[in-house]
Amino acid sequence: METAQETSFVFPLNVVENSGDHAHSTKADHNLSPFKLEGAEESHVTHCQEDDMTGMEGVENTAKQAGENDLCLPCKVCGDKSSGFHYGVMACEGCKGFFRRSIQKKIDYKCHFSGNCAIERINRNRCQHCRFKKCLAVGMSKESVRIGRYSKRVKQSNMDEIKRLSSKPETAAEREARERHEMEIYTLSQAVLQAHNLTCEYTKEKVDALLQQQDSIMMRLNAGEDLNIPPTVDYSKWKPEERSNSKVFAWKIFCEAIMPCTQHVVEFAKCLPGFLTLQQEDQMTLLKQGFFEVWMIYLSPVMLSEERLILLGRDNVFARDFLARMETPDLWRHIFEFATGIHQLRLSDTEVALFAAITIMSGDRGGIKESKQVEDLQEKFLECLRREISRREVKDNHLFAKVLMKMPLLCSTST
Ligand SMILES: [Zn+2]
Ligand SMILES: [Zn+2]
């Protein structure tokens, strides 16, 4: 019952008695309802003609059932009459079913037009690709299809939306402006994620592989095999005097090891919408000063373990006691603390990518010429991250703030 209740947001007019869970639809809620209460007594009829998933969605209370005339909130995807909140968004039965099927069957649609078809009630079946994209852009959540529930936070924001829309319905122009903005933010998030997937060696998938490799190396070490770690680098090309100064030597090896990552961060930045429009000097400044911070964000998932080893890459194994040779215990303590903090936030790839983009786009770096332009770009990425986090299933109301609070720590560590 719990699941059913959690799955679909129930309109506040709901006075259903078929589930104890509904008891919290209080009088106060009713007063806020944009819908009249007439007809509400019929509203416990489950509305699932195209769903077999009654277990998950059965207790949906639809506005339609509350009486045709009561309906004033349109489907956010196609503008048709909505039947309630589905997967986090006010949507019609058609779009609800379409979204669910798309996720469950993992369908990969293609657009046969230019990739930005307008989705309206009358043509919503014409392009599935663009309809699905719009579902995501207006905030439908894949997670809630899988998990079958969404957080109090999403419910609360749905309530707020009902209140807002019922006091002042959206005009056509407002709707258009909102849709354009939502699509812009969604497209930007996708572009940043794509840049991340193309360039980063520490996406979730790759990190999983690294950690597995780390486990197997640890097993071999524990079994007594001599794997000769840390010398993962060809010592022979180092001059004798370099080798004798263990600190300098350690730093050189370390810098060489993270060199490929520098290139990846540069590539990532270049793919960020807007980065190449900045003047070249500023691009350089942002990269120079931001690289180490981005590197720390990327590396967080492999840094936290108390293991003796750190895998910076497939063939890039560092023993932890090797790091001590760099004689910067404070730096490493900071890095490990930061990594642990980041790890606890359980960021998705999209969130990591946006966090990295925000870090690069810092208008307050020393020597930036056009800081306003950089800040404007950063603001967009911040909005993407805010949106991404607000749709999370994890009940963490302060996550956005927590992520941002990591930034000063980042800066202090990298300087
Ligand atoms: Zn619709
Ligand atoms: Zn299309």
Strand content: under 5%
SSE sequence, one letter per element = HHHEEHHHHHHHHHEEHHHHH
Query: What sort of overall outline do the alpha carbons produce when their principal axes are compared?
Result: elongated
Task: Report the sheet with the most strands, covering strand number, pairing sense and barrel closure.
Answer: 2 strands, antiparallel
- Helix content, binned percent: 55-70%
The count of DSSP E runs of length 2 or more, i.e. the number of strands, is: 4
Rg of Cα set: 26 Å
- Name every ligand kind in the structure: zinc ion
Main sheet: which strands, in order across?
A: 1-2
Low-confidence stretches: 1-71
Number of helices: 17
Please state the structural category. mainly alpha
First-last Cα distance:
53 Å
Q: Give average pLDDT, whole number.
A: 75
Family: Belongs to the nuclear hormone receptor family. NR1 subfamily.
Domain Nuclear receptor: 72-147
GO molecular function, one term: zinc ion binding
GO biological process, one term: negative regulation of transcription by RNA polymerase II
